[in-house]
Design a protein that fits this description.
- InterPro entries: Aminotransferase_I/II_large, AON_synthase_class-II, PyrdxlP-dep_Trfase, PyrdxlP-dep_Trfase_major, PyrdxlP-dep_Trfase_small.
- It comes from Rouxiella sp. WC2420.
- By secondary structure, the protein is α/β, with parallel strands linked by helices.
- It is 43% helix and 15% strand.
- The protein has helices at 3-9, 16-24, 63-77, 91-104, 115-126, 141-152, 165-174, 198-207, 240-243, 258-261, 272-281, 283-287, 293-331, 351-363, 393-413, and strands at residues 32-36, 39-42, 47-50, 108-112, 132-136, 156-160, 181-186, 211-215, 251-256, 266-270, 343-347, 366-367, 369-371, 382-386.
């Protein structure tokens, strides 16, 4: 018996739904041979409308604007930095970190290669034996991985349901004796597009002298300050903390730049003292390479491009998102969101229904994200659609036509369009 495969046989049966979807839905392991904005061609020549991209503003296709600074940075500093950030770094890091800090209104920032390594670096470095870490149950899986690393060192790990402030306060009060306390949430929840209630969380964590850790991987670059009815995403794209009018001062705000700005990097908003500490104790800064000079050059250029075209791109996304959400709800589907952020998850309810629907959509030219258990709780399996500025109304109309077909398929098979006893706000 192959030893590698013996580990697969020992895997928990709870993973089976995920493996089934990976194998049968056709929405995974897709090999792309051609990209024309949000029209893709797979290795078999199949044309697809791309509703799986999270590059909401479409900066991933702004090569002519963004490439120049990336190439300049690579020419100046090399293609790759083959040393840990702790050992030494190019001045480009300092320039971009200062630019990010000014943009979000923080004292300073610290760059990481991506948000996964940001959480894995920061959370175990700050939360030690006897400390408390409380996770939102809907928070991103990478925060759970980081929290488990802290728990292995002796930290106390607890969780609360998204938005349940009473449960959170009970945990904070019960463990008020812990020397350090951290509460971890998503800024924008990756499965529903809902926003964390930072206005409610901030005074609560401050009351118990806890640190609020906010992962804004989806929000940064897209949502920003001064939202209103006409501009629900706000302006500038300076993140969920500015969108909700809170301050990064008492928050560990972290964000990725890949989704909003098409640059492979991430950062944390920090004080100078925290930056010095994390440079020494965050393992990804000690033992792996940082972002390449090319990526930082692209990020620098994207920050310059954002104020020039960001507002119109957000308006385009909002119009398309409203059209899609209204169309899906008009057909009777359960759209699992309380906002109009361009993450639209359509309830499927079980693994087989999810597989059948996602396979049909792929065959008809729609590329999206099928979300089975354990990505979603059992009974909340969903088809996740992400809308970007490069999608078109024609593509939205095509998808709605296909969902009308799926509605008929489900009705013939006796499959419910909505879960019993649960409804989300219609916005």
């Amino acid at each position: 018996m192959n030893i590698q495969n013996s580990f697969l046989q020992a895997s928990s049966s709870e993973r089976d739904p995920l493996l089934l979807v990976l194998k049968q839905s056709q929405q995974y392991d897709v090999r792309i041979t051609k990209v024309e904005h949000r029209e893709l061609t797979d290795v078999h020549g199949k044309k697809l409308f791309d509703f799986a991209s999270c590059n909401y503003l479409g900066f991933d296709c702004e090569q002519e604007v963004l490439l120049d600074k990336g190439v300049q940075a690579a020419k100046a500093f090399g293609m790759h930095t083959s040393r840990a950030r702790l050992m030494g770094y190019h001045e480009l890091f300092t320039q971009v970190e200062k630019k990010l800090a000014t943009f979000i209104g923080a004292e300073d920032t610290l760059l990481f290669p991506n948000t996964t390594l940001t959480s894995i670096g920061i959370i175990p470095a700050l939360v030690q034996k006897g400390d408390l870490i409380i996770l939102d149950k809907s928070a991103h899986a990478t925060m759970y991985q980081a929290a488990q690393m802290a728990r292995d060192k002796g930290a106390i790990l607890k969780s609360f349901a998204q938005g349940d402030m009473d449960a959170l306060e009970t945990l904070l009060k019960t463990h008020s004796h812990c020397p350090r306390k951290m509460v971890c949430v998503d800024g924008v929840y990756s499965m529903t597009g809902d926003y964390a209630d930072l206005a409610g969380l901030t005074p609560l964590v401050e009351k118990y002298q806890a640190l609020l850790y906010v992962d804004d991987g989806h929000g940064f670059g897209f949502v920003g300050e001064n939202p209103d009815v006409q501009h629900p995403y706000g302006s500038k794209g300076n993140g969920i903390i500015n969108h909700q009018g809170t301050s990064p001062a008492n928050t560990m705000y972290v964000a990725g730049t890949a989704k909003g700005l098409a640059a492979s990097a991430a950062f944390a908003a920090v004080t100078p003292e925290m930056k010095e500490y994390l440079m020494a104790y965050a393992k990804p800064l000690d033992y792996t390479h940082p972002s390449t000079p090319f990526c930082l050059g692209v990020l620098d250029a994207a920050l310059d491009l954002l104020p020039k075209i960001g507002e119109q791109r957000r308006a385009d996304v909002y119009k398309l998102t409203v059209s899609l959400v209204e169309g899906l709800r008009g057909l009777g589907f359960h759209v699992m969101t309380q906002t109009l952020f361009p993450i639209i998850s359509v309830w499927a309810g079980n693994t087989q229904t999810l597989i059948n629907a996602s396979k049909y959509l792929y065959q008809k030219g729609i590329f999206l994200t099928a979300c089975p258990y354990p990505t979603m709780p059992r009974g909340k399996e969903a088809l996740r659609i992400t809308v970007t500025a490069l999608n078109t109304q024609q593509q939205i109309d095509h998808m709605l036509m296909l969902f009308a077909d799926i509605k008929q398929q489900w009705q013939r098979a006796g499959v419910a369009l909505t879960p019993d006893g649960e409804s989300y706000a219609h916005v």
